[in-house]
């Protein structure tokens, strides 16, 4: 038996062994402990930094000397953050596209650099008062924690990708106190595949991280939404209205972010310092004039808990201000996320629509919290295009099963409207930008930089409806080099494929490939097996 054959057999046996399935759960728990612990410390540090910042800015108001010193400190903070980004460029931005690229095999980030750099950057950004969230960095911190565990256990690259996904789930869970949301976000947005071993291990990581945050450290949820009894059926026309508005504004949100990113990209001197100093200086003016807009938005959540004391105009002003400030901060490449500011904007939009409907159509003010919850679901679904995660997130934030029908309707409508407007999903666009910036490796046989006969890994692909190879026989498919098809699972049954086996939609194809060729092979297989609907909405600038 040749060395390659022995490696192939070993990889396949490990994939199908029950011991492997159990090991994934244990590894997921380890990732949940480490990722949850890191993210918890990150949250505590950010809360402390924000508290100190608000205390300082509250004291210096009206004293020109102290104000000048504060602006000088903001310049120093921007230089420190810029130096860290220059030291480890993969910490720029939210961290979710980097985690996604890691999972699909296009990045091999140094976890030992990303973890400390991202952590420190987040604390400095929070102390500066910039409108950035903790969830994106939490996903990256969790993902890198998963990678650290995989390195310590000497796992192969395929399992490493699984643990990175588990870490992303743990990070999201610890950030939102929402284990189901963490699991679904990792599967729907990061991995983009649904299969049992992944879901079970990701869920284990999420639950362990949430337990650590809630029961060991005793931290409370960052946001809790109320949901009274469902709207009367006759008023469900307003659910349609909320979905449409959320879809349109979600598309505009993305369009504005992308446009300002292009504008920042024209600053080509002293990068990243010249870009980062802009949001830090603006944060200084915001701290003196509209402190509620600072940081992620916890202060705004508290402000809108009593909607009866607010006017439509004041809520609209807060919404526009929060969006503008967040866009200026994020588009500069500032290390930090947009998910929590996005949720805050969803609550503001929902409050605004609830107040308008109440005053114009006489719906009781008691139903305004329902519109707040619908606003969060609709904005999340339209911006990120993860409607299932949006529904589950609002369910976990409200704790109400009665909310599911309205949340699902709003999410589906807003998701559809945003797609009709042909604006890219937020993180898909950022991922395409990241991939386009990476060097393209040759996949020709003459590429002498790649070892031949290296470690073997297994990858599983589900054949999407209307994909390029649906209906073709195995022998007629232009498979990439360096792979072997192991099995095809169809309707719960495993088939041993032959050349005449005809591929059908939703077939699960297990392939074995050489780790050295993983990036190129996986990209080609992903394109071959994608559903037709996914191909239609791919970003045009992403790689072919």
From TrEMBL:
Entry keyword set: Chloride, Ion transport, Membrane, Transmembrane, Transmembrane helix, Transport
Entry's Gene Ontology BP terms: potassium ion transport
Main location: membrane
Gene Ontology, cellular component aspect: plasma membrane
Cellular compartments annotated: Membrane
GO molecular function: monoatomic cation transmembrane transporter activity; voltage-gated chloride channel activity
A family per Pfam: Voltage_CLC
CDD domains xref list: EriC (cd01031)
Entries under Gene3D superfamilies matching the protein: Clc chloride channel, Regulator of K+ conductance, C-terminal domain
Transmembrane segments: 20-44, 64-85, 194-213, 234-253, 273-301, 313-333, 339-361, 373-395, 401-421
Domain RCK C-terminal: 446-528
InterPro entries in the record: Cl-channel_core, ClC, RCK_C, RCK_C_sf
Membrane topology reported for the UniProt record: Multi-pass membrane protein
Protein name: ClC family H(+)/Cl(-) exchange transporter
């Amino acid at each position: 038996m040749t060395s390659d054959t022995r490696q192939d057999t070993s990889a396949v046996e490990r994939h199908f062994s029950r011991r492997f399935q159990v090991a994934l759960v244990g590894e997921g728990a380890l990732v949940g402990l480490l990722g949850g612990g890191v993210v918890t410390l990150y949250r505590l540090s950010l809360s402390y930094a924000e508290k100190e910042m608000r205390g300082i800015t509250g004291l210096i108001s009206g004293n020109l000397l102290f104000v000048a010193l504060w602006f000088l400190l903001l310049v120093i903070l921007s230089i420190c953050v810029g130096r860290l980004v220059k030291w480890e460029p993969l910490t720029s931005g939210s961290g979710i596209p980097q985690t996604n690229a890691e999972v699909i095999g296009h990045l091999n980030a140094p976890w030992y650099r990303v973890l400390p750099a991202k952590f420190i950057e987040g604390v400095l950004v929070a102390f500066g008062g910039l409108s950035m969230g903790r969830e994106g960095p939490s996903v990256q911190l969790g993902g890198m924690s998963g990678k650290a565990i995989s390195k310590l256990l000497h796992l192969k690259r395929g399992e490493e990708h699984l643990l990175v996904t588990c870490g992303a789930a743990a990070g999201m869970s610890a950030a939102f106190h929402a284990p189901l949301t963490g699991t679904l976000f990792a599967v729907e947005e990061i991995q983009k595949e649904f299969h049992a071993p992944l879901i079970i291990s990701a869920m284990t990581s999420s639950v362990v991280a949430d337990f650590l945050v809630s029961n060991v450290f005793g931290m409370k949820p960052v946001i809790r939404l109320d949901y009274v009894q469902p709207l009367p059926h006759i008023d469900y026309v307003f659910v349609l209205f909320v979905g449409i508005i959320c879809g349109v504004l979600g598309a505009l949100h993305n369009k504005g972010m992308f446009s300002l990113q292009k504008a920042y990209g024209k600053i080509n001197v002293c990068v990243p310092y010249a870009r980062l100093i802009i949001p830090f200086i603006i944060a200084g003016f915001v701290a003196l004039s509209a402190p509620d807009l600072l940081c992620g938005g916890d202060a705004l959540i508290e402000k809108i808990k009593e909607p009866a004391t607010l006017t439509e105009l004041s809520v609209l002003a807060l919404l526009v201000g929060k969006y503008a400030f967040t866009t200026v901060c994020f588009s500069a490449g500032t290390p930090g996320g947009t998910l929590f500011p996005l949720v805050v904007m969803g609550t503001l939009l929902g409050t605004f629509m609830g107040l308008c409907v109440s005053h114009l159509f006489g719906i009781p003010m008691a139903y305004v919290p329902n519109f707040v919850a619908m606003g969060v679901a609709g904005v999340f679904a339209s911006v990120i295009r993860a409607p299932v995660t949006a529904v589950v997130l609002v369910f976990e934030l409200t704790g109400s099963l009665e909310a599911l029908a309205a949340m699902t309707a709003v999410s589906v409508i807003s998701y559809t409207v945003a797609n009709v407007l042909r604006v890219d999903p937020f993180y898909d666009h950022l991922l395409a930008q990241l991939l386009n910036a990476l060097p393209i490796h040759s996949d020709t046989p003459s590429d002498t930089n790649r070892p031949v006969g290296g470690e073997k890994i297994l990858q599983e692909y589900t054949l999407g409806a209307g994909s390029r190879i649906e209906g073709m026989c195995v022998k007629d498919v232009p498979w990439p080099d360096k792979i072997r098809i192991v099995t095809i699972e169809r309707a719960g049954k495993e088939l041993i494929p032959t050349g005449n086996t005809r591929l059908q939609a939703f077939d699960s194809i297990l392939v074995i490939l050489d780790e050295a060729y993983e990036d190129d092979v996986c990209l080609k297989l992903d394109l071959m097996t994608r559903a037709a609907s996914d191909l239609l909405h791919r970003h045009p600038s992403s790689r072919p």
